[in-house]
């Protein structure tokens, strides 16, 4: 028996939706009946990945009268990119109900050897990009005066709560995303806009494939997780649907939801 569609009539925009967690959320939102826009960086390296994604989208949309999916190209580290992404989403679908700030980078580096260029790139993408894109989404939601307000979801990380010796430039940005969602929950509550953070644990994506290619490190990481396995991008899709659905999470705002297989509690 098929599950009920929980997001019919909703319009969602997801930054960094071409791969990993963003891709999994985009596909699940489509399965639940939403119209979805994703942002992507662009360039020929993405052509094959985009082609595969479009095939999956077409399978979900088979028999539909019109497409419920668009892509928008732009560098999220630039403040104008978030504004353009929101504008093109509204132009295509007429509104914005759900915004997922997901785009991010993670390159491991030794703290004492960390170059200013990598630090600045990480902050401008993961935190500044999240701030300006979230601001653009919130402005659109506030001015539309939708009865449901809207839902903004920031993809933070378990790294917002713990340290990482080779992530000294990365963990502060994810702590910043968590704090941004908490503060936005306060700032935007009067508009009925809910703001929450998802905190993935160790999720196997293109960001950490190289790091987890070492069998011994992979075994070590799995051994710390009570559920006994690394996470996969679809593990974040269900929680993202929950936070997007007014009927399920209409009184949830300012919250942080760990999706980590129990890793955090096992680190204590």
From TrEMBL:
<dbReference type="GO" id="GO:0019301">
    <property type="term" value="P:rhamnose catabolic process"/>
</dbReference>
<dbReference type="GO" id="GO:0048038">
    <property type="term" value="F:quinone binding"/>
</dbReference>
<keyword id="KW-0684">Rhamnose metabolism</keyword>
<keyword id="KW-0521">NADP</keyword>
<keyword id="KW-0560">Oxidoreductase</keyword>
<dbReference type="InterPro" id="IPR036291">
    <property type="entry name" value="NAD(P)-bd_dom_sf"/>
</dbReference>
<dbReference type="Pfam" id="PF13561">
    <property type="entry name" value="adh_short_C2"/>
</dbReference>
<comment type="similarity">
    <text>Belongs to the short-chain dehydrogenases/reductases (SDR) family.</text>
</comment>
<dbReference type="GO" id="GO:0016616">
    <property type="term" value="F:oxidoreductase activity, acting on the CH-OH group of donors, NAD or NADP as acceptor"/>
</dbReference>
<dbReference type="InterPro" id="IPR002347">
    <property type="entry name" value="SDR_fam"/>
</dbReference>
<protein>
    <submittedName>
        <fullName>L-rhamnose-1-dehydrogenase</fullName>
    </submittedName>
</protein>
<dbReference type="GO" id="GO:0006633">
    <property type="term" value="P:fatty acid biosynthetic process"/>
</dbReference>
């Amino acid at each position: 028996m098929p599950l009920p569609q929980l997001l019919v009539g909703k319009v969602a925009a997801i930054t960094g939706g071409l791969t990993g967690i963003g891709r999994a959320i985009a596909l699940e939102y489509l399965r639940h009946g939403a119209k979805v826009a994703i942002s992507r960086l662009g360039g020929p390296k993405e052509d094959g990945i985009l082609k595969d994604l479009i095939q999956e989208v077409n399978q979900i949309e088979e028999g539909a009268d019109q497409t419920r999916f668009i892509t928008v190209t732009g560098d999220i580290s630039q403040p104008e990119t978030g504004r353009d992404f929101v504008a093109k989403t509204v132009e295509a679908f007429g509104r914005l109900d759900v915004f997922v700030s997901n785009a991010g980078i993670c390159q491991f580096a030794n703290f004492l050897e960390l170059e200013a260029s990598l630090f600045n790139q990480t902050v401008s993408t993961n935190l500044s990009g999240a701030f300006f894109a979230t601001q653009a989404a919130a402005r659109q939601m506030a001015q539309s005066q939708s009865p449901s307000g809207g839902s903004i979801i920031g993809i933070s990380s378990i790294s917002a709560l713990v340290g990482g010796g080779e992530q000294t430039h990365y963990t502060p940005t994810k702590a910043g995303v968590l704090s941004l969602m908490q503060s936005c929950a306060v700032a935007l509550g009067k508009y009925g806009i809910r703001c929450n953070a998802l905190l993935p644990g160790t999720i196997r994506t293109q960001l950490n494939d190289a790091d987890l290619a070492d069998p011994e490190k992979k075994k070590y990481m799995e051994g710390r997780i009570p559920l006994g396995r690394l996470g996969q991008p679809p593990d974040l899709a269900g929680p993202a649907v929950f936070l997007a659905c007014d009927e399920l999470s209409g009184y949830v705002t300012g919250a942080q939801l760990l999706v980590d297989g129990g890793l955090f509690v096992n680190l204590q």
